[in-house]
Amino acid sequence: MNYETLKVEQRDMALFITLNRPQARNAMSLRMVDELNRVFQQAEQTPAIRAIVLRGCEGHFCAGGDIKDMASARTQSAAHDEGGKDPFYQLNRAFGHMLTRVNHAPQVVITVLEGAVLGGGFGLACVSDIAITSDQAQFGLPETGLGVVPAQIAPFVVTRIGLTQARRLALLGERFNGEEAVRLGIAHYLCRADNQIDETLSQVLAKIKRAAPQANRVTKALLHQVGSIDMEPLLDQAAQQFAAAVHSEEGAEGTLAFVQKRLPNWAQ
Question: Is-above-0.85 flag for pTM?
Answer without folding.
Answer: yes
